[in-house]
Each structure stands twice: as structure tokens, then as C-alpha cells.
Amino acid sequence: MSAALQNDDTLDDIGTRLKLVRQIFGLTQRELARRAGVTNGAISLIEQNRVSPSISSLKKILDGIPLSLADFFTLNFSPSDNVFFTADELTEISYDPAISMRMIGRKVKDRSLQMLRETYQPGADTGDAMLRHDGEECGIVVSGSVILTVGVQERVLSPGDAYYFRSDIPHRFRNPGPEPCVLISANSPPSF
Length: 192
Hints:
Elements: H1 2-6, H2 14-24, H3 29-36, H4 40-47, H5 55-63, H6 69-74, E1 91-92, E2 99-104, E3 114-120, E4 136-143, E5 146-150, E6 153-157, E7 162-166, E8 171-174, E9 181-188
Antiparallel strand pairs: 1-2, 2-3, 3-9, 4-7, 4-9, 5-6, 5-8
Helix pairs in contact: 3-4, 3-5
């Protein structure tokens, strides 16, 4: 199935497209045949491109999913942007040597979410001038600990602890501990 997802040319044939749609919807050939009121053999032959169904036969089969003819032919199975990122593909966006902010999907077009893997070295501090920007953010501490100040509230967060706040409230991250603090965070809309 993953090969079909990566090669649009193979999706030009009805059989390959039907098989992929059926699998995406979690249906066996037998279940789709039962729902559509056709034989299991008919589904199998179509998926193998050994027979070409009429429009009415295809519509009957798609009604068993349910999926319209228009959706069947226009579904895009290949994402236009990269979906997976190796650790080396995360983009460093911090200029502070004590703070690493590695962003996931920096070049993704029209993104409405920003995810970061942040590492605060011992003594790291985002600064006396507290951060403030549009949107909201949340995160979870993976290792180490961090002091998070949000407005007048302040708390030490340890592994497994999390936060969520409106980003227009002044905020600050500090690591006074002896070991690096790693956290995973998300901002919406992206602030970098």
C-alpha cells in the first residue's frame, strides 16, 4: 500500500485506486462486496485490473464504502509536503547556545501549527524580558525540569508535567537544574 501512496501514476488505474480506498476505509474485499451487493470475485478482478467496471457498477461498489464517484477520482493519496522528518531534518531556530529549538516541518506550506523539540541547558533562561506573541502554546516535559512563568503564575515542571496557555500572556522558561531539560511544544499559529 505504501508504494501506491508514493506513485501517483499507479493511481490512474481504477483497480489500484479501488484497492487503496478499500484499505483506507478498513474493508476486506468480502465486506465491500457484501455492502455493495456484488460478488467478492468482481471486487478482486477489478482490483487486479483484469476487468474494467461500468460507471454504474463502480458507483454501486463505491456506495458500499460510501464514497461518491467524484471523490473516488479526485482523492489525493500523495501528500504534497514531506510527512516524516528524521532528527537531522529538524531545523534549529534558536540563536542562544544554551537553548536549542528544533522545529518540525519548517518548510511545510500554509502550516497552522508549529512543533518544537526544545532543550534548555543547565542555567538556560529565555530572559528577563518575557516572551509574548499571538496564539496559544502547550508542551510536555520529557526529561529534566524547567521553571515556567506565565503572567504572575510560576511552577517547576518535571518529566510528564505539561502546560497550556495563551501566548499573549508574558511567559518565560528557565532551567536552574543540573541537567538539560527537554520538552516538546506546539504553538498555533506558528510564531517562527
